Each structure stands twice: as structure tokens, then as C-alpha cells.
Amino acid sequence: MGPTEVNPKIENDLLFGNFDDSGERVMNESDYKDHRDALLFAIDVSRSMTQLSDKLGGVSACELALKSIFDCISSRIIENSYNLTGIILYGVKTCNQCRVLMPLSIPDSSAIKNLRHFLQDAELYHEAFQYNKTKSPALIADLLFLANQQFNSFASKIPSRRLVLITDNDSPCTEDEPKGLLYAKTRAKDLYHLGVKVEPLFLLHEFNNESFDSSRFYDDLIYDTMLETELADFDGLDQLEIKAKSKTQPLQACNLSSEILSRRTIRRPLATNTIVLNAQINIGVQIYSLYRPQVASRATWIYAQGEVAKTVDHDTRIVVKTTGKDVLPEDVRRTYRFGEDFVKFTPKQLSKFRYFGEPTIRILGFKPASWLKFDDNVRPNYFIFPTDKQFLGSTRGFSALYQSLMRKDKIAIAYVITQKNSTPFYAALVPSPETDLSNPANPDTPAGLFLIPIPFADDRRRVPCIPADQQTVAPDSLVGIMRNIISKLKMSKGYEPYRYNNPALQLHYRALQAVALDDEYSDLYIEDKTMPKYNSIENRVGTLIGDFDHAVKDHLHISSDSTEAKNGLENEQSSGQKRLADDGTPITKEVKKRKNTRPEFSMKEVWRLYQSHIIHTYTNDQLQKFISRLNLKKSSLKGTVKELLVDTLVTYLDTLSSLDDLETAFGESGGEVNISEAAS
């Protein structure tokens, strides 16, 4: 999870404490630096890693890894300019078979340009990726020692340090070379004590027979910190079973790019909290945010008149406009409107109003799982997982709570304050079963408890109920045709968000990268994958859409004829005493169709017909008066008079969001109008 964006309103920090208007704590620059990340990539250069593969698009695994790392670095420097990144190649033709391609540092534009030039220059690339046919037994130990030097020299004060190991060789040291494994274990322990987390990417492709057995070498090198600390007390599970599940599974080489990009940000918790069951039982947990809207990077003022551009340091002051004197923060009051008056508060008073207690997740009771409705999910959910850093045995207590909820099909209702000075809310603790990731159809849902905020009474809105006699119900024939259309347009795997990037965000990133790397800015193009595929839609349901259009027109024509006949019959019957012929029988006369068959006109009627897509049932005179009252310009499309009037009106109504906007527009144009007068 990436860091939260810094609030640009510096005045809030200056006057009202470090909180925004909603009462949430605002992240500042120190928060960014506290969560900096040092990411070091190590690529294994071997015969199988440098061979071209058709499954990888005609490139080698090394080249694919380096291109993916280039994209990852470009994204990291835009999202967070404090992160460090480095690249090491091991197994190459050098004295110690290791080469630092990019030192561990904050990449600047020159480093990105050099890496891109390295990828584009074929001669330079092949020279660097010449593998050593004779591997040293201490190759992995030398790599880990070099990584240790990089972290000690350039990232000694950074809390998050990660080494991503990319290889397809599950046995870099043979059984005849036991010292190689011993040396590697020693260096791996040094990294572990330094706080460096090793994240291996074991590749499967045709050149290693689609097999990788991590137990042959790497299982003894990768230390799982969560296994040794947080899961040590896990009750009811076999420790060996936990250890086996904690090891990294190999991945297909074609998925290498997405795996590298997924490591561009650190997975840090949003907050640390406590589940309170009673006064004696507290369970320490960490709160994670699974989804966070990604926004454009914040702009920073720079001074560009010197030889080197420098960041401008902000200094915000409040002065009296008439005298120019500075105003101290304690002399400023914030006011809120209360009727005709203004209520003033000091910053200290505001801080007290926003304090509801210490962060807590207090269990209030339990409910059946069916009690939670789908429409209760109104805010982003959180995921909580145990940690023993606050209270020893938290993992054991969390496991007991989780297993009890799963076994009894229950959920817990809790009073939640996620962080200090944040607004409290009620939430449901919903257990999530662990899914079988070997089946691609299963969602990647972690096993644990989800924190789902429950709406208050003030959050719920009463949806207006439409009477049954005013509801427009489609006939079964139209419903059947539309059902076929929807079934043919339905995605087989549903909506997969990982396949669709935000085009506006990607264009912003591409523009920043183009300016930083002196690329052509005018030729930027981002493919919007969310655009409908019109040719595919036409091939699948083009005929059905035509049938549906004809069926709708036929249904509206029949409905209009029946309505007119009914209105004429009612008028004939309500005209009083019928004239009788000489033989005493009523004199029948032909029903005269009225020019205006609509009842008294109203804004609600127009809006309802517009939403039902039957606005064309009004006469030309009615539509003409409506359009002239709004001073609308007639459509320039070719067609009949009725089609032009309908297109003009519908185009205008498409710009409105609600009935209130339509009534406001009529009020500005001179008040309500009775269009039925146009027919007389």
C-alpha cells in the first residue's frame, strides 16, 4: 500500500493542529520519510535466463525483468520521490561475478536515461549480460554480501529494506559444494539481522523444464519474520504446515512483469489497533487498506533560475490586510454558522471536540452472518490481521475469534476508532475463508477479518416509492429480447480491475516522464481500454438490438392507439344524455381524435417521459413551445420535423442531472409553462 497524499492546505496544520476538516490526521513530510522504502533488485544472469523465448514475446527472461524494473522505477519516482532503488546482476563475467548496474539511491532523470539507454543499446546490453559458464560456489554468498554493503552504505536509516531475487535456478550450489550453502546461510542471517526482507521471484519456463524446487537450496535462506514472531503462538495449527505455506511459490515467467510492478510500494499497515473483548482480553491487530484511489502526484514549486533546479521551501503567514501585521496562530478563531450567528472556536477547543478516545475496536456483540445486508457496505472496507508487538498471544486470541466466527457462521459488531482523532463508527467484523489460489477462478482473498463500516441512521436515505399505477413495466416480449442482449454482452470472467488502467492517470505519468527524459510530449497517446468495442458489440448483438428497437416502436404504437380510443370512449360516455333516434336507439357517431391526447403538462411528466425514452409521444406543437421557452437552438441533424425537435430536447435534457435542474431552468426562463396550450 502506498503512502497517503499530503494535504496541500498548509493552513490547517498551522492553525488547527495536524487535522483536516473531517478530523482525520493529515500526513506530512515526516510521515513520508518514516515510510521510505529501499528496493534492491538482483537478476540471475545464466544461460537459461538469457535465452530468447517465444512465450515471452521474443525476449529473454533477463530482458523482460530489466524492462519491468525500468517501468517499476519510473512509477516509484513519480508516486514517492523518497524511495531508493538499485539493480545488481550476478553470474556475469566479472571478478566476483557480480555487477552493480544501478547503485541503491533515489533515481533521478539521468539514472533513468542511462537505464533506458542500456536497454536500447544492443551492444551494451549483450556485453553486460554475458554469463559466466563456471559458477562460483560462493556466488549467492557474494551476492548477499554485496547487497548488505549496498543497504549499509545507502539505506542504513531507512526502515523498509527489500531484496528482490529473480532467478530460475533452484540449485546454484551442488551437493558436492556444502560450503557454498553454509556461506550463503551466514550472509542471509546478516541480512535478516539488518532488517532486510528477501522477496524471491522463482521463474518457471521451458528452459528449466517448468520446474523449481525451492527446498533444494532457497528454503534455508529465506527467513519469514512473521513466521518466527507473529505466528509462533498460532494455536491449533501445525508449525511445519505454517512454514510450508509461508514459502514463496514459483511463478510463470510470463507473469514476471506484473509481479515486479506489484512490488513498487511497500505493504505497510494503515494503523495499529486493539480488539477489546473485555477488560482482561485485548488483541493487537494491524489495519490494512486493500484499495486506495490512486491520484496524480502532488505538484511542488521549484526555483529554476539557477544552474540546478531547487525545491522551494514554503512559509505560510497570516497578516492583517489593513495594517500588514502578522497574526499569531493562537489569535485566530475558526467560526461555524449557527442560524444567523457565528460560533467561534479556538484550535485547542477544536482538538477537544475531535477527540473521541483512544484507537480501539470494541466488540459490542454478535449477529448471524445473514444480518449484514449488501447495501450496508457504504464505505471502503479494511482488513485486519494480528500482531504480537503490542500484546503477547494476540495471534492466538485472534485465531480463536476467527475460528469461532467461521464455525458458528457469525459476525461481530464493534465500535471502531481507527486512529487518534478520527471519527468513530460502527462496523461488522466478517471472517474471510482462505481461498485455493491454485484455482484461477477463485478470488485472491486473504484469510482474516474484514472490517466493514455500518451506516448510521443519518446515512440512510429514504428512496421515494413510486405507486404501482404510475410504474412503467415492460412486457415480457421486450424483457426476453433484452435478456438475450445482456447474456451475449456479459463478460465471462466478470469485471477484472487489474486489466484496466486509469487513462487520465497514465497520461499524467507519461507526460511527467516525457518532460523528465526529454521525450516528445506532443505524441503522447494512452489507450483507453474502458472504451466499448463497437465492432464486437455489433457482431454479437447487432441483429438483436434492431429487433428490440422494432419491438419497442410497435409496443408504443399499440399503447398510443389504445389510450386514444379509451379517452374518446370516456368522453362520449360522459357527455350527458344521449340523443335517441326515432326507434329509441342511441345515435352513434364516430369518435373524433383529439389533437392533444396528453393531460395537463408538468415538469414531472416531461422528466418521466424523458427517462422512459418516450418523449416523442408529444406533438410537434408541444415540443416546439417547450423548446422556444428554453431558448434552445434546434438540432442540425437531417430528418423529419419531429425527429429534429425530439433530438433538440433530448440533447438538452441529457445535460441535466435531476428534475430540480429542469425546474430551475424553467424558473430562469420565466416560470412554468403549459405546453398543452400549443395544441389549441
TrEMBL record:
It is found in: Chromosome, Telomere; Nucleus. Residues 559-569 have a biased composition (Basic and acidic residues). GO terms for molecular function: ATP binding; damaged DNA binding; DNA helicase activity; double-stranded DNA binding; hydrolase activity; telomeric DNA binding. Residues 559-586 are annotated as: Disordered. Keywords: ATP-binding, Chromosome, DNA damage, DNA recombination, DNA repair, DNA-binding, Helicase, Hydrolase, Nucleotide-binding, Nucleus, Telomere. It is an enzyme of class 3 (hydrolase). Its EC number is 3.6.4.12. It comes from the Eukaryota. GO terms for biological process: DNA recombination; double-strand break repair via nonhomologous end joining; telomere maintenance. One of its GO terms (cellular component) is chromosome, telomeric region. Transmembrane segments: none annotated. Signal peptide: none annotated. The active site is at 33 (schiff-base intermediate with dna). Residues 324-471 form the Ku domain. InterPro entries: DNA_bd_Ku70/Ku80, Ku70, Ku70_bridge/pillars_dom_sf, KU70_core_dom, Ku_C, Ku_N, SPOC-like_C_dom_sf, vWFA_dom_sf. Belongs to the ku70 family. This is ATP-dependent DNA helicase II subunit 1.
